């Protein structure tokens, strides 16, 4: 997978790829395999009480929602929260812009997924004039410090930036117009932000350069091919979570449930329905 990991070195966004090096084969099968792997990791994180934050950023139509749907599809919903971030409510605007994000941090054993995030201060608020220049310029230091506090406190933080080209965005907008079930996705904000394309590219580049650190790196994923981007994103997340938990030791059925099933229905039921996983579950 062609993923750029940024830890503080300066980059030019236009030099980072938006298309994958090659066509991805068996994308659906790979997603299925990664979903099971992520489920095991989620169970391990829950049992160990570890906290996870996943941040997804990118221009409109970059594919954040599609990745999040595939990421969460088979996870235990009790242990995952998805936070779609829009404009702050009036009562939030009277407080520091990070206030509303402190309210959404994960509890022990929980995964918090941010569909857009605190980076709005240096993206939409900067580009479309909702924050003054002194405010958004000061925010880079505040964001780095905010994430330093999180990681120092033991939070597992994974940041993904989906790098989409302007022609690919056009095709996705047209696809939403053509397909009735996708038309709800188009908003006036999407069309307005496209008119700021160059300004957003500058803001994204500054964000990547000023907020990538060793403890909170950015991972830039080519997003023109949505199937590639989904597999690459899930694979990256699984790899990062795998550094913190040993999911190979996780049983998706607890010993208590196994004992209750055997007591109620007999061991043959487990053999029939678990198949090759039978030995792993009863060891």
Question: What does this 3D model show about the protein?
Answer:
With 283 residues, this protein is of the alpha/beta class. The protein has 2 domains: 4-250, Rossmann fold (3-Layer(aba) Sandwich), CATH 3.40.50; 251-283, no CATH class. Helix content is 49%, strand content 12%. The protein contains 13 helices and 6 strands. The chain has helices at 27-48, 64-72, 90-93, 99-102, 124-127, 133-152, 166-178, 188-194, 197-211, 226-242, 255-265, 267-274, 278-282, and strands spanning 4-6, 52-58, 80-84, 111-115, 156-163, 218-222. The protein has a 6-stranded mixed β-sheet with strand order 1-6-5-2-4-3, with helices on both faces. Helix 2 (64-72) crosses helix 10 (226-242). The mean pLDDT is 92.
- Output the CATH topology of the largest domain: Rossmann fold
The Rg value, from CA coordinates, equals 21 Å
Total domain modules: 2
Q: Number of DSSP helices?
A: 13
Q: Helix share of residues?
A: 40-55%
For this entry, give a set of tags.
49% helix, alpha/beta, Rossmann fold, six-stranded mixed sheet
